[in-house]
Amino acid sequence: MGRLMYSMMTTLDGYVADADGDFGWEMPDDAELHRYAEEITRPVRTYLYGRRMYETMVFWETAHDLPDAPDFIVEYAKTWQAADKIVYSRTLGSVSSERTRLVREFDPAAVQELKDGDGDLTVDGPGLAAAALQAGLVDEIGPIVVPVVVGGGTPFLPPGLRLRLELVDERRFDKGAVHLRYRVR
């Protein structure tokens, strides 16, 4: 049985994007954090994306072809390309990456069937994660807290959510980020 994990870069004050939608503060030129992100996503069999997150992440379909791409970029691109992707969107016309399918509605029962198979899954993007959290599907929550405060924007967790969590791991990075990994009880 696989786990469904929700992990994103978040500010110290709990936002994945600022009030203008910017998330450029996430991992600029942090090779250590990029390598770690590749390491923790390597076992992921399937990424579950909302439209906006998919449109951001589809960059990795061709990132390995960038001239002078550092090795950590190439490695993450290969890891991303090797996994299946499901994009949940009512408005996206088509997908532009391999191993990707478009689904119009989020169906908790279908996600549970995926979890019942082999390999881990991630739910990526706060909107889709909110639906998965509210359906009781998320097994682990792993904010990667970066040392910045933006004062508002898109929250990492939906308002009104109540969960009991157990800390199962933590890791600090040289540039000040911290990954906290919690199991949902």
Automatic annotation (TrEMBL):
Q: Which domain of life is it from?
A: Bacteria
Which Pfam families does the annotation name?
RibD_C (PF01872)
- Bacterial bifunctional deaminase-reductase C-terminal domain sequence ranges: 4-177
**By its UniProt entry, which Gene3D superfamilies does this protein fall under?**
Dihydrofolate Reductase, subunit A (3.40.430.10)
Q: What is this protein called?
A: Dihydrofolate reductase family protein
Q: What is the lineage of its organism?
A: Bacteria, Bacillati, Actinomycetota, Actinomycetes, Pseudonocardiales
